[in-house]
Amino acid sequence: MNRIIIASHGKLAEGMKNTVEFFGGNNVDYLEQTMTDTGFENKATDLLTKYKDDNVIVFTDLYGGSVNQCFFKNLLNYKFHLVTGMNLSVIMECVFASDEVNDEFIRNAIEMSKSQFCYMNDVLNMTDDDDD
Hints:
By secondary structure, the protein is of the alpha/beta class. Helices cover 48% and strands 18% of the residues. The protein has one domain: Phosphotransferase system, mannose-type IIA component (Rossmann fold, 3-Layer(aba) Sandwich). Strands 2-1-3-4 form a four-stranded parallel sheet, sandwiched between helices.
């Protein structure tokens, strides 16, 4: 079973989880590092231990950020996929995958998501240029 963990600073992870659920996704947990909450590393380890028999895909918010560093260190002790720079379209691809998500699936989902990342003002300008 694919198990998704979304981890972030602040409330971003909860918002991403809620959005995934809005579209009908499940099997998603979230973990947030806040200024007042302590024990983030222990909570991360607890989740990885809880789902050690599942195919776990962890999404973190910032490359090199403390949340990502915490999970990166855990790659030595747990088998899971770690993706940073979380992106809703990639998360959704993994949540709704009918088969087990593997390295190739994740790489393809990331590549496909790049085409959805654009500055819409340029799209508008291209449309305006086509009208001329």
